[in-house]
Fold this sequence. Notes:
This protein has a single domain (5-297), classed as TIM Barrel. The protein is built from 11 helices and 9 strands. It has helices at residues 18-31, 47-52, 59-68, 92-113, 130-149, 176-186, 197-202, 216-219, 247-255, 269-273, 278-297; strands spanning 5-8, 35-41, 54-55, 72-77, 115-120, 154-160, 191-196, 222-227, 262-265. Strands 1-2-4-5-6-7-8-9 form an 8-stranded parallel barrel, surrounded by 5 helices. Helix 5 (130-149) crosses helix 6 and helix 9 (247-255) packs parallel to helix 11 (278-297). The protein is globular, with a radius of gyration of 18 Å. The model has no long low-confidence stretch (mean pLDDT 96).
Amino acid sequence: MTVLLGNSGAPRWYQGGPERLTAYLERLRTWGATATEVVLHHGPADERTARVHLLDPDWGRVLRCYRDAGIAVQVHVSLDPRFATQRWLDEPEDLAREYEPILGVVRDLAAEQGRAVLVLHGANDPARGYEENRRATIGLLGWLAEAAERMPGEVLVGLELGAVKPDRPAATARSRADVLALVQAVDSPRVGICWDLAHDCENAAHEPGWEPVPGSEFLDRVVHVHVHDLGDDGASHYPPVLGRVPIAEQLGALAARGPLPSIIMEVRWRCAARLGEPWELLGESYRRVGATVAELTQR
Length: 299
């Protein structure tokens, strides 16, 4: 079985026009990419948003390029505040309307690919308490689970394990225990965990007794994986070439329990640029993570 392995599809990787995208896709094929994850955004957008998100005028063209290259597409919800999970508590209908176009893309991808994953963050409103953020997260996940059940193919919703932020003490899904509890509260086969390995390692200092491999209950709920590394500055989203995240051990624990889920290297261009030429470092990331995946799947 082919493991879906790729990197985040931020437009910054191919900024410069259609020719640049063609060259980028050729590199991905050379490196053995079988998947990507795009952050979809519609509506008003500034330059910063355009570097990270795939904007709606480009959805059809760019996604078609990926699919024609044989690359499966997974989707991350826009990071713009208009799409924030905490809006579900007071504005569920408005938030649902923001999600509908994105869900339409996910539905079409699942129908074509057989499976598609939608990744989102938990509610993290600093003006609210944890219980309110928790209710918002569970409410949105429940609505998404019902929507996924009606779609052709297999649509999975992955709640991402995020990093602890001191300025957001009431944020949800910022520990293994919390992201697992939220997913269990929804109790749907369509809803699982997006295990971000680097954010998990960032949280080690906040979780007494933390070890690289979580318990079986957590592992059995993982439907999608984010892989990246931690830099000298302590920041995440570096190419997974630095060895600060125990990627082989963690992926090995997943592989021991069944087929590996989709794996996305969530590398930011600017973090790669701090180490060298970004495309070269992305290629090296594919070689290293790809070798690990190949070894695990041959056991």
